[in-house]
Design brief:
With 172 residues, the protein is an all-alpha fold. The protein has one domain (3-97, 115-171). The protein has helices at 3-18, 29-46, 51-57, 61-68, 73-89, 96-102, 118-129, 136-140, 143-151, 164-171. α2 packs across α4 (61-68), α5 packs across α7 (118-129) and α5 runs antiparallel to α9 (143-151). The N and C termini lie close together (9 Å).
Length: 172
Amino acid sequence: MPLAAKREAYVAVVLAVLIYGSESWCLTAAMWGRLRRFHHQCARAMCNVSMWHVREHRISMVGVLKVLKLRSIETHVRRRQLQWAGHVARMPLSRLPRMFLTSWCGHPRPQWRPDFTYGESLMAALEYAGIEQNGWMEAAQDRGQWKQMVNGIREPVEQIEVHAVLKRREGA
């Protein structure tokens, strides 16, 4: 099967199910690690690259994802979170999701509070996308501009040359 077909099937079926509902997730570092590990295992399987190949030929995950023309799991999740945040920001103030997004609680947080809140997760997504945290709600009011900003997210990845082993597999 060609790599392009494998990628399309993975994105349409596996990835869609994997990140279903991710718009409201508050992921800790451990959860990000689990998602990243699964994503990388799937990418290596699509390229028929085992961990032996990775060690023996020094194949990086950046190279594998580049060959597949696949984004990192962080980019997929962050884009969905920002799409949802923009949708909620455009809602009227009378809608419940907008009330929750813009509400303020004047009481101190209890000791047993969640490790990572939705607001902190949203701020992390804005930082990942390079969007100003103070004026994002105003920017989200223009649907077209917001869509361009969210779809224009570039991954913070260095340019690494793909090894010959993966190039040979891409042609097959």
